[in-house]
Each structure stands twice: as structure tokens, then as C-alpha cells.
Fold this protein.
Amino acid sequence: MTVARIAILFVLAAAAEIGGAWLVWQAVRESKPWWFAGLGVVLLGAYGFIAALQPDANFGRVLAAYGGIFIAGSLAWGVIVDGFTPTRWDYIGAAVALLGAAIIIGAPTASSTPQD
């Protein structure tokens, strides 16, 4: 359940943060109505609460791992929503970022390894 919870929370956090930032971008750079920005700010705030629900109590560790999810999620958002075409370097960078996230989240912590 913990792995599923971590994954679901990361996906929800990414959707809130990327979606919120995209809405603000639309209002500021694409001349969409300013309520887009307001909704974006609400989603960005929701991201902070969603991230705080992760089972790991270490803020820096959770946010560092989330960085990889954010990178891959941002590229996916660009493809799905904006019609962006990633380069092979985008894919390689996203894969490296996701590998880093997996290492951070999957590695044993001091509390889960025997003490010398």
C-alpha cells in the first residue's frame, strides 16, 4: 500500500503543481482571463498540501524525489496539453530524473537499516 500511496500522491502533486503553473502561465503569457491565474494559485497551494501527505517525514527527501516526477510530468503535460514534441535529450533527461527519484525513494533509510 505504501508504494501505491507514494505513487498516487506524486502523480496528484504533479498534476496540481504543473496544472497550477500552466494556468498562471496562460493568464500571464497567453492573455487568458485572470481567473486562470487565481485557479492556478489555488492548485499550487493544493500541491503543497498533497506533498505533505507523503509517508516519509523528511521534507527535503520527498521534494528531491518529487523533482524527478515533476520533470517527467512537465514534459508529459507539454506533449498532451500543448502539443510539444520532446527531443531524445528530453526523454533521456526525464529518464535520468526518474531514476534519481526511484533511488531516493527506494533506498533504505537510516531507520530501516541495521546500525553498526
The mean pLDDT is 93. Residues 42 and 95 are 30 Å apart (CA to CA). The radius of gyration is 16 Å. Residues 2-106 form one domain.
